[in-house]
Write a structure and sequence with these properties.
Strand content: 15-25%
Strand order of the largest sheet: 2-1-5-4-3
Distance between the termini: 75 Å
Structural class: alpha+beta
Length: 400
């Protein structure tokens, strides 16, 4: 320091680092590089060494320069043997001491380093190595070793915390990646289920076509249904291909009675094959809900397919529709074994099923998602005559 008591203007990068580190307004560093850089700057100020650097293992597991505060900032990257030798040091040591091994002496000669000190965590892991010296360095002085010892001790706790934070960040990144893969798996499962329903409908009509091809009414309805279901499948695939590039276009409110009639027409052959009747009641031809026709059709298909599968031969499935204040209520009831009270929330979880491993357990989750997106709600209760009753309440069109 000059006789006037003022610090001279910094004339090197390292001196500028020292000057900034001494400023009282500087925030305490948190990442490993900043911690090491600040510590090396203090070392240079206290020991007047020309070279101060830190070695540590890089992301690839190879030793590398982690930070440096040296005039000209030479590379000084360690070899694997040199790094192994310095991390085995018990503390701050002079590299040219009489008991130094050949690797340490070669390190001093090759890099102009005089002393080294490992920075170890509480469990003994070496987090970094601090090194000081100068070109044509002589043996380290006691003052330099004491400064290295103090620096290594001060760094141990914050450097361990920085490494823990870095590891947590890496774990968080890995978890997010796994979440994305899991989401992709769920999306694939959902799409398979979504596409299966229209294909089942088309298959059913194709099976009936040979015996009904002479019926013009059936053929007309068949072509209309098949085209509608294939168009819906294409829209589902387009949604996945374009997502998230294209915003979803708002759908027209679904007319409940017309949608129920279409779904029943699709499922009637399947129900007949299984010996199950489907009864509908109460649908108001003018009632519409705040959910598009595709969405309402998918909800009803999922609920009715589950109901048909759960109902024994000779029994019936019913779908009842009635207006409630500001909404329309649809109730799909089956004559199966019902759903235990403890499982009535879980049946809406993705991949949860009570019907065996061959069922995907995704249909009710899809139905709930569609209903809740429209501002509605869905629940399950015991049906009046036994079995399960799935109650869907959707806002009436214009009520949301």
């Amino acid at each position: 320091m000059s006789s006037s008591g003022r610090r001279p203007t910094p004339n090197s990068t390292s001196e500028l680092l020292v000057h900034r580190a001494a400023a009282p307004a500087a925030a305490p560093p948190r990442d490993a590089h900043s911690l090491l850089t600040a510590s090396l700057a203090r070392l240079r100020e206290r020991t007047r060494c020309e070279i101060a650097l830190a070695w540590a293992l890089g992301e690839d597991g190879a030793p590398a320069v982690a930070a440096a505060a040296s005039d000209g900032a030479p590379g000084l990257a360690p070899t694997a043997a040199e790094f192994e030798a310095v991390i085995r040091l018990p503390g701050a040591c002079a590299l040219l001491a009489s008991d130094s091994n050949p690797t340490l002496r070669g390190l001093a000669a090759r890099h102009g380093l005089a002393a080294a000190a490992p920075v170890a965590s509480a469990d003994g892991r070496v987090l970094a190595v601090l090194l000081t010296g100068a070109p044509n360095a002589a043996a380290a002085r006691p003052r330099e070793l004491a400064a290295l010892t103090a620096a290594a001790r001060r760094l141990a706790l914050p450097l361990a915390a920085a490494e823990a934070e870095r590891r947590l960040a890496r774990i968080d990144t890995d978890v997010r990646r796994l979440d994305r893969l899991a989401a992709l798996g769920r999306l694939t499962q959902e799409m398979a289920h979504e596409v299966r329903n229209p294909l089942v409908s088309v298959k059913t009509f194709l099976q009936l076509l040979p015996e009904r091809q002479g019926d013009p009414d059936f053929t007309t309805r068949f072509l209309g249904v098949v085209n509608g279901e294939l168009e819906r499948t294409l829209r589902l695939l387009d949604l996945v291909i374009d997502y998230p590039r294209l915003p979803l276009a708002p759908e027209e409110p679904a007319r409940v009675a017309a949608t129920v009639a279409t779904v029943l027409e699709l499922l009637e052959p399947y129900a007949r094959q299984r010996g199950v009747e489907i009864a509908a009641q109460g649908a108001d031809a003018s009632a519409s809900v705040a959910l598009g026709e595709d969405g309402l059709r998918q909800v009803l298909l999922n609920l009715l397919l589950n109901a048909i599968d759960a109902t024994p031969r000779g029994a019936a499935v019913s779908i009842a529709t009635r207006p409630v204040p500001g909404a329309i209520e649809l109730v799909v009831s089956d004559a199966g074994g019902g759903v235990a009270p403890a499982l009535r929330e879980r049946v809406f979880e993705p991949f949860f099923t009570t019907r065996g491993a061959h069922h995907g357990g995704i249909g009710l989750a899809i139905a709930r998602g569609l209903v809740e997106q429209a501002g509605g709600r869905i629940r399950v209760r015991a049906a009046a005559g036994g079995g399960a009753a799935f109650v869907v309440v959707l806002p009436a069109a214009g009520a949301v």
